[in-house]
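Entry:
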Amino acid sequence: MTLTLLYGDKNLGQTEQSNFNTLYDQCNGKMPVDIFEMLFNPELRRHLVDEILQFAKVSHNDTSFTFSEDELQKFIGV
């Protein structure tokens, strides 16, 4: 597949096409939930939880607020 199919006549560079091909190859044949898990990896989930906790503490002065990666997964619906 090429980016031309997705973006029409826009002139995208070789790097963009190469990156797209790599991602396409990694995703080809996988279930949507597997692709989501690949992109929404544990490192990103940990970062989101840390930022949510920091926001609660700084913006709402709530040091007792708790939130976990498991709760994040449930919230997202995975």
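The first helix runs from residue 3 to 7.
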